[in-house]
Amino acid sequence: MNFTPQQLTAFLHLARSGSFGEAARLHGVSQPALSRTIQQMEAALGRRLFDRTTRSVVPTPTGLELRRIAEALVAEFDSAADDLARFVEGRSGRVAVAALPSIAAVLLPPAIARFREGRPDVEIEVRDGLSGSVLEAVSGGGADLGLTIRPPHPQAALVYRSLLSDEFGLVCRPGDAPGGEGPLPWSVFQGRPFIAMAAASSVRQMTDAAFLQAGLAVPPLYGCAFLGTVGHMVATGLGVTALPRLTLSLLGPFDLAWRRLERPVMRRSMGIVTRAGRSPAPAVLEFLAQLERQAKSLR
């Protein structure tokens, strides 16, 4: 026989209260409806569950054994239902984020901190890497979402949503900056040692494109993989570089100057990548909303 959770709950109300009237009230049904439920259960078992008198309703030995089993089953069902409700409300689950390190360091820490204030039971995993690995992690299902620059070519398996854009500027020691306060042309790098990022990085690809558009031949030096290394080199006087403004906090505890670059103006569009045609988990949707709020505060 298979008893439903509703039948077992009705049975427990009667076993605990010892009254059909009280059990019907607790269960939210009429007394005849409750009586029919108990009769159906007794018929399925082929045994009486309660001894009835004019004064009381007392479980039989079979009823006592069923009560023991029903208490455990209903408690487990209620716990599972609560777990499901928490998941549907985005209060439990897991969020896996793949991100460019420069974007992750700016957007993720404050977004995660605020998200966890209301959802401390959601597990968050961060995988930082270059843009190509971010796209692969999302398209392959290893990450729920990616934080990266706009993909150079549309990809049918992915959906990109822009969060904010970040302009490039000259980064140098304050004493090495040209006079004035306005924007500078990319020709400012001619004749200066240019500290470049690694060839596979999104920053390097954009600085190479800027030099090409400006018709400049500026040799890239060092090919640093980490922004902290670039910051130390600039602060030491080994050269100057070009970086998006939001990366400045990642260069280290140095007093460095930043001046907007133009001719051409280079903007790095940063956003969220998700899989096309897939419904994100509720916790992922809530985290996406938090990221959008965080990005709005940086615009």
Secondary-structure topology with pairs:
Layout: H1 5-17, H2 20-27, H3 31-45, E1 50-52, E2 57-59, H4 61-88, E3 93-99, H5 101-118, E4 122-128, H6 131-139, E5 145-149, E6 158-172, E7 184-185, E8 194-197, H7 202-214, E9 220-224, H8 227-236, E10 241-244, E11 257-262, E12 267-275, H9 282-298
Parallel strand pairs: 3-4, 3-5, 7-11, 8-9
Antiparallel strand pairs: 1-2, 5-12, 6-10, 6-11, 6-12
Helix pairs in contact: 1-2, 1-4, 2-3, 5-9
Describe the structure.
The protein has 299 residues and is α/β, with parallel strands linked by helices. It folds into three domains: 5-88, Winged helix-like DNA-binding domain superfamily/Winged helix DNA-binding domain (Arc Repressor Mutant, subunit A, Orthogonal Bundle), CATH 1.10.10; 93-164 and 269-298, Periplasmic binding protein-like II (D-Maltodextrin-Binding Protein, domain 2); 165-268, Periplasmic binding protein-like II (D-Maltodextrin-Binding Protein, domain 2, 3-Layer(aba) Sandwich). 44% of the residues lie in helices and 23% in strands. It has nine helices and twelve strands. The strands form three sheets. Strands 3, 4, 5, 6, 7, 10, 11 and 12 form an eight-stranded mixed sheet that branches. A two-stranded antiparallel ribbon has the order 1-2. β1 and β2 (57-59) form a beta hairpin. α1 packs across α4 and α2 (20-27) packs across α3 (31-45). The longest helix is centred in the N-terminal third of the chain and has 28 residues, at 61-88. The radius of gyration is 32 Å and the shape is rod-shaped.
